[in-house]
Automatic annotation (TrEMBL):
Species lineage: Eukaryota, Fungi, Dikarya, Ascomycota, Pezizomycotina
Official protein name in the record: Uroporphyrinogen decarboxylase
Example GO molecular function: uroporphyrinogen decarboxylase activity
Subcellular localization(s) per the UniProt record: Cytoplasm
Top-level class of the enzyme under EC nomenclature: lyase
Amino acid sequence: MTQKFEPLQNDLIIRTAWGQKVERTPMWVMRQAGRYLPEYHQAKGKLDFFQTCRDPEVASTLTLQPIDRYAGIVDAAIIFSDILVIPQALGMTVEMVDKKGPHFPHPLTSPDDDQYKQVLSKNVDVAVELDYVYKAITLTRHKLKGRVPLFGFCGAPWTLLCYMVEGGGSKIFKEVKTWIYKYPQATKDLLQKIAEVCVEYLALQVQAGAQVFDSWAGELSPSSFNEFSQPYLAYIAKHLPTRLEELKLEPVPMVVFAKGAWYALDALCDMGYQVIGLDWLQDPAEAVKIRGTRPIVFQGNADPGILYGSRESITKLVKNMVAGFGGGKQGWIANLGHGITPFVNPDDLKFFFEELHRFTT
Ligand SMILES: Cc1c2[nH]c(c1CCC(=O)O)Cc1[nH]c(c(CCC(=O)O)c1C)Cc1[nH]c(c(CCC(=O)O)c1C)Cc1[nH]c(c(C)c1CCC(=O)O)C2
């Protein structure tokens, strides 16, 4: 069934992502729907995290919370979900443990593990397995009434692999390093499988834009990045547009956020993504130099910790960031350099946005 949605009233971020000159810098923040908002806790109640993702009514409510709170200020919504729904669709169990983060009770242990073979051979029908995400997207689009575009997203193959073998977050990445350095081919087979599911998953999500999060890219050396992350990010960038064409959908701008992969910025500029997310350890002016004349748009990159600082510090950072990205009328989407953290005062985020408006209009 073809869905009818109200026309987009604010397409600033889309025009910017396609490289056009714009009247001011578009802005949103990663994890803008989340724990720093009191209304998030209220709407979530006692629901478990993944229950909220699977309930289209709740997921759409959470997606819209920052859009309502920062109405007329923020320029994009991102669907409330998680990167770990792909391992779930591949047949793995993932829980969200309060105050600890994601936990896989049975991570993949080695290529001889039966579970590894099952994951690799599973024929994943993402339209069925992840239909709750599509329902949440459709409902959210109706509720948005065209106010701002809605971004879809997925985890990058490398980052998903980290979770699937580590079983959660990690400090020393013992398991994933064992996989890449002991079983490189089995690792690549799995990364390829994940990349294929990512393409289909994004294609069916696609509304306005698609963001690929490679949150653990910074754990790789440059040569390991070239071997275990880059080819799969490139696979997604190459095959998503083809798949969208097959589905008779319009192309959408694609965003890659490879956290910590500063060494790869030059290569990322040639990977087929329109937008590259930068974390806060990268200097905007340096990044602009590396980009050169390539028609790439940057997204980022304020230290998320700025939102614990004083108003004066926020103003100073915004001023510097705007200057670093060249004024902000082209080639830049303002954001934090990673997701917003808990305990931020939502009024301080509002101030950050307002200062961005003031310095970039
Ligand atoms: C690595 C990663 C994950 N999830 C995601 C990433 C990539 C981005 C990044 O690097 O931050 C992506 C993500 N997770 C969530 C969103 C929703 C949309 C949005 O940005 O507003 C998005 C885009 C909701 C969430 N995902 C999660 C929460 C917090 C859940 C809660 O405790 O209520 C939210 C709102 C949980 C989650 N999910 C994940 C972790 C590590 C955690 C725990 C983090 C923490 O405790 O701060 C995996």
